[in-house]
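Let us work through a complete example step by step.
Step 1: write down the sequence.
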Amino acid sequence: MSNFWITVTALAGYLLGALPFGYLVAKAHGVDIFKAGSGNPGATNVKRVLGAKAGNTVLVLDMLKGAAATAWPLLPFVDEERKIVLQLIGVVAAVIGHAFSVFTRFKGGKSVATAAGGLFVLIPLAGAIAGATWVVAFYAFRYVSLASILAAIAIIAASWLLPYHVAVAVITTVLATFVIVRHHENIRRLLNGTENRFVKKSAAPAPMPTAAGAADADAKKSTP
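Step 2: predict the structure and record it as tokens.
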């Protein structure tokens, strides 16, 4: 394989991963996401600070950049025999780019969505298992961090148990471990019982009528 394709894949993957969608979406709302909430530019913090629409937008965009960095080596003009190597380089570069973005002075997020997007392209069945693990864990415990950590563990296990090439399993393990390590502060808070939990907001109760309001209501009832 030529150094040209390796260089192009690594550079393209890094720049795609480095696109700071969390920062840009928050900035469009007049918020510096590095100074709001947990200070993380990922989808979870954006959702907490700006709401579901903004957070989900960042989630989708972060997944797409990981997927794009991993998928483009599948194009017809790339050497057929070396595509898997280029895909591995692409997803690794994208994850590094997201975590250490050149556009935000090498600050970034935990790379969960970016890694997920790339691994869904690379190993879709293992990615689906990890995705299902995330959903079950999140709705069972309501901790995004815990769900992400368990999903990372699930994709490591799936990459070794399913019939993937050993290089794919090794890179998947490295990426998932990197994601877990990036959650070290969350792990500490989980152990201390201080981690933030997503809780469903219940409907606000109807306001109690005031004395003046009750008198007005009585007056309206007595008016012919």
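Step 3: interpret the result. Residues 52-71 form the longest helix (20 residues).
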